[in-house]
Amino acid sequence: MDDAMTSPALRVLVVEDEVLIALELECLLDELGHDVVGVAGSSAEAIALGLSTAPDVAFVDIHLVDGPTGVEVARALSADPHTTVVFMTANAKRIPDDFAGAMGVIAKPYSERVVAGALRYVADLRAGRAATIEGLDGFRLAIRDGVEPRYLSEG
Amino acid sequence: MTHRDPPAAGPLKLGIDAGAFVAAFTASPTPMVLTDPRLADNPIIWANDAFLALTGYAWEDLDGRNCRMLQGADTDPRAVRRLGEAVRAGRPIEIELVNYRKDGTSFWNGMTVAPVRDATGRIVHFYSAQADMTGKYRHEVAMRDANDELERRVAEQTADLRAALEQKTALLHEVDHRVKNNLQVISSLMLLKARRTPRGEVRDALQGMAERVGALSTVHRMLYSTGDVTRFDLREFAEDFVSELVAGIDNERTAVSAEIDSIAVSAAMAAPLALMLHELATNAVRHAFPDSRAGRITITAQRSDEGLRMLIQDDGIGLAGGKPNPAGFGRSLVEMVVRQLRGVIVWSDVAPGTRVEITVPLDAVSLRTGAERAAEAEWTTR
Question: Does the pLDDT of residue B12 top 60, yes or no?
Fold first, then answer.
């Protein structure tokens, strides 16, 4: 993937209780040239790993081993301004209006392309480059400062 | 009658004397009573038999007493006040209030009370006629009770229905969430296995299957995200689908263009259509342009009189030019799906390239109008 060459590797925390999804996501992130710093299945684990690894990006599922605690996890992880939180869920309706500090949401079922695109967007933002979200349906940004959520396919 | 016309004057002229009135009033089935405001405390001075029957009192019990003796605990003091004011002002009044019989039972007494004046205009009597309104009141109360009961039942049922709807909505969200999650798990499983499989036919097959699951996943994601769970927009799907397709092509020589009208199709049709489009387009990408051949794939879909008309065309090597594929899975999958949709598919060599034309009839759900859809959304969105 070309963006893996031009962007520095991102350190990613995966918060997902479904082992198979987590494992495949790890493989994909590895393939895209990013480092997975940890995989957590529960909220306590996720928050502890967040503190110990200070990831660049955290992909957070809403439903974890201990219930719909992904929202709390997002709030805790996004308290560190260094960490960009992105929800990754089939249950986007549970995301609060303020997105619990998360940047956006990747809707499950997602495609590899959308995950790659979302990470490229984050990397571009972090590098201060012009970041485009065009052509990525299934990735939606949080509402910020009263601005309507924009679907990536709408640019 | 007013005091300007002395009461007895008319009838007397007709030759009817006062005794005839007394006889008539005494025998009347309407309870009547006469009081004398010139005496202390405006006492009863005459009552007819009907009045005695209504109240259960003997004449001796009533003689010389004020009518308030009939009032009791349930008599509305406001009604009593109004009655008193009218009497003091010498105004006639119609009023209903609770009175009590001698035996203590109560009844609704509907009465008219009117002053009787003498030739000089002075009030000499109050005359009152009564009617037992208890039946009417009982009826009113029964009606009110029935109404209250009905309202209570309607409220109860509405609450039940609302609770049932909330439960159903929660269940729908839960199922929706599970379906999506499971699709992600299935896709992850296949991709994991593919990653651990050496390059070759098996790996390609696994990846191909994961892509098919991906096409179905896109449908599911779109179906339930729009709020209308019964239909989805083919164009919206196609945009996403073409992006995926282009991302999967690792060369610059193949161009893909799509012209898909905004067509609402039913949920039942969505998955087969998505699978079919995916199959035909990826087939073209994989097989139409061997040996670094450059080319273009166009996908169009329009509403027509017969239903939905789709065209997938490439300028590649054509059907005859391709290597014969004994399994031919992609092609038979497409034909199965078209049959399921009761459509017609025509494959043709167009030199250069392959052209596949599919026509499928739209089902009742797909054909519903916007107004019907809006009416339904009222129900489905809480």
Answer: no
Which residues, 6 or more positions from A76, have their beta carbon under 8 angstroms from its beta carbon? A46, A47, A50
When pLDDT is averaged across residues B321-330 and rounded to a whole number, the result is 66
CB–CB contact A109 B243 (8 Å): no
Q: Which residues contact B351 (CB under 8 A, 6 or more apart)?
A: B318
Interface of A to B at Cβ within 8 Å reads 18, 20-21, 23-25, 27-28, 63, 90-93, 107-113, 135-138, 153
Neighbouring residues of B306: CB distance < 8 A, sequence distance ≥ 6: B359, B361
Decide the pairing of beta strands A11-15 and A35-40: parallel
Helices (H), chain B: 9-13, 18-27, 49-55, 59-62, 77-89, 134-195, 201-225, 234-248, 267-287, 318-321, 329-340, 364-367, 370-380
Judge contact between A61 and A89, C-beta under 8 A. yes
Tell whether omega for the bond before A68 is within 30 degrees of 0, i.e. cis: no
Distance separating alpha carbons of residues A12 and A54, to the nearest angstrom: 9
Q: Indicate the residue of A92, A107, A111 with minimum beta-carbon distance to B214.
A: A111
Taking only the tens place, the pLDDT of each residue in B109-163 is 999 999 999 999 999 999 999 998 888 888 988 999 999 999 999 999 999 999 9
For tokens 């008539």, the residue is B24
Separation of alpha carbons B85 and B91, rounded Å: 8
Cα–Cα distance, B255 to B181 (Å, whole number)? 33
Report the candidate in B302, B242, B316, B228 with the shortest Cα–Cα distance to residue B274: B242
Picking from B183, B189, B192, the nearest residue to A109 by CB comes out as B183
Task: Locate B70 and state its tokens.
Answer: 């009939």
The pLDDT value given to residue B63: 92
Separation of alpha carbons A42 and A50, rounded Å: 12
What's the Rg (C-alpha) of chain A?
14
DSSP three-state, residue A67: strand
What DSSP character marks residue B177? H
Return the minimum-mean-pLDDT range out of B91-100, B107-116, B212-221, B314-323.
B314-323
H or E, element range at B357 = strand B354-360
